[in-house]
Design brief:
Elements (H helix, E strand, L loop, with lengths): L9 H10 L4 H36 L1 H17 L9 H10 L4 H22 L1
Helix pairs in contact: 1-2, 2-3, 2-4, 2-5, 3-4
Length: about 120
């Protein structure tokens, strides 16, 4: 739920699992899998939104420019997708601008796993 646009903190759930003595590797695995599944949902929601709004989006000058910028710089923007609050909408935008799904999963997924790994190291 947390990596979708719903307001829920996966970090709190992850740290609670660690505090309750769940093995780190298990907590890391389950948190990462859940988070990656959620960004996949966001990506496909973005694809759905593109299909429903593409005529309007691409018919305006600003819409076309935004789409072009998103496609050109989308992978760079995904570097921020691990951040709370702004990261989840970026995964939705990745679907809207139709970034290649495989590269999206590799890049955004690794960043999500890295975020939990870093939290586990700090905790």
């Amino acid at each position: 739920m947390a990596a979708t646009l719903l307001p829920f903190s996966s970090e709190v759930a992850f740290l609670t699992a660690l505090a309750n003595e769940m093995p780190t590797i298990n907590a890391l695995f389950f948190a990462s899998c859940g988070n990656i599944l959620a960004i996949i949902v966001n990506y496909f929601l973005g694809l759905f939104l593109y299909e429903k709004t593409k005529t309007k989006l691409l018919s305006s000058k600003i819409g076309q420019k935004a789409f072009d910028y998103g496609h050109k710089y989308g992978y760079y923007a995904l570097a921020l997708s691990w951040l709370p609050i702004i990261g989840d909408p970026l995964t939705l935008v990745a679907g809207v601008v139709r970034l290649k799904f495989v590269w999206f999963i590799i890049f955004a997924g690794l960043l999500r796993v890295g975020r939990y790994w870093l939290l586990a190291q700090v905790f």
